[in-house]
Batch of 2 targets.
Target 1
Amino acid sequence: MCGYQLKYVRTRPVPSYKVKKVNELAELIRRYKYILLVNITGVSAEVLHRSREMLRSEGSVLKVVKNNLFKLAIDKVKKERPEIEKLKERLTGQTAVIFTNQNPFSLKLFLDKNKIPREAKAGDVLTKDVVIPAGNTNFPPGPILSLFNKLKIPIRIQEGSIWVTSDTVVAKASDVVSQELAELLGKLGIKPIEVGLDVKAILLESEVVEPSEIELDPSSYEKNISSAHSQAYNLALNLPFFIKDVMDMVIRRAHLEALNLATNASIITHETVGAVLAKAQAEAQTLYNAIKAKKPEFS
């Protein structure tokens, strides 16, 4: 039995806009040293827009891509940059690409620090406490009053508006947002959910790495450096190691130790005479009290 293999052959020309897009992406791959793939599933257009502006200010470019078109762009430049093919297997789901010449470690920190606030939706899990501030809401009394009452927010009606009488915590970190809370926060313009770009892969010099491999916590590095400094200072002080950072303390400690030695050995100098005599008087007084306790007649 003869076997046949069917192969798709495109009969219509590729749309010009797709060709233009592939060429644009290929040129960006050539121009920028580092490439970050970002998962944008569930990310709103507003968040993408603001992220694009932030990245542009850092000299980087954010492009939302079709995975197939980006693969074609990779094919166009793979002879010039063979390492780029390693990104193909990571092109799944909804994807955006960040092109940058900036250190990707610094860029990842920048993205983590500059998350975009958005409105809460029912079912969202909060990452921080939500506070309704005291003051005029500029809403007239009406159906919205029921939301304030359900959420136990203290209010008063004044000058035809609803006023919140005191700052009120309406939800805490890790709480799930209810429909009522989401509705009220939306009306008040409070955006408690912070959204960042979820980097899923980074092309470095010749390797593709996971974000977890380059994640940095500046505060932990600060603590480590501070601890290392303290340990080095104590080591230099206790050796002693004569460097300017500890010299003053080494001399002071040596001076105190010399004074203690001279005092305990009853060596009389102009610095120890007072302490030696005080020590002798204290010892004599102790001896006198001990004899007197055994011989009351002794005086």
Target 2
Amino acid sequence: MAQTSWFAADIVVPFEAVAAAEAVFDLVEADGIETDLLRKKAGDNVTITGIFPTRPDKTSLEETAQRIFAIYDQTTPTEIAIREVFPEDWLAEWKQHWKPSEIGRFVVTPPWIEVEDAEKIIIRIEPKMAFGTGTHETTRLCLRVLSEEGVAGDGFLDVGTGTGILSIAAAKVTSEACKIFGCDTDEESITAARENAEQNGVADRIEFAVGELAVDAPKFGTVAANVTLDVILPIVDLLIAKADEKLILSGILKTQEREIVEALGARGFTASRIRTDGEWIAVVVDTY
């Protein structure tokens, strides 16, 4: 049965603190994030909204905000407001404010906007109550790697696929011989990923499955894990083992760079390439 109502947590911050507020909702695993930047400029207040399937714990949100805003060297918001929302209202807001985003060779766009640019690779993502647009800094970092470096070796593994955007991007820059597999522990994410793959005409190129990365999974030429560091570290050996040529790790804050670099260095990978977008990084490792 479809969920009839959700909960939204609103944080109002200065324009300069938008990234900090978005990071809060990332870390508490909000199912969607809406940032109202329409006609906003430096010095203005901006409302960032996290969407949750159940009422979020306000104390936990406030504690996370205090910690993350300190990392970003921003003043902690004085109030986090929680309200009940309904799918039709949320989707209407998305359609009003979401515009195409250009990321390297890719343009990520909602399906109701036509993009006419023969030189760009178009990825259409349908926003739903439980999923973001795929244009967060962490996803942009991964897309830039795929845009500039492509998929190395035989196949692409997308761990924590979410909307399926990285798998779709991989399908659009590789031949039909490239095997692509995306997994996520959230069943609704996999449903959305399959729908997005269909929307982009690559459904027959990608296999999606609900669940964690299996120990007996085959190797892939390139492995991407756009999750969070606390998810990456316990499975970093498995990720390395499955990456035949290249490993892309994202969902990592700049303040966590030393931790992931040391973890990789301890396993013999000392030449990691770091890419940065705002307060986030992606780490690219050649594993061959």
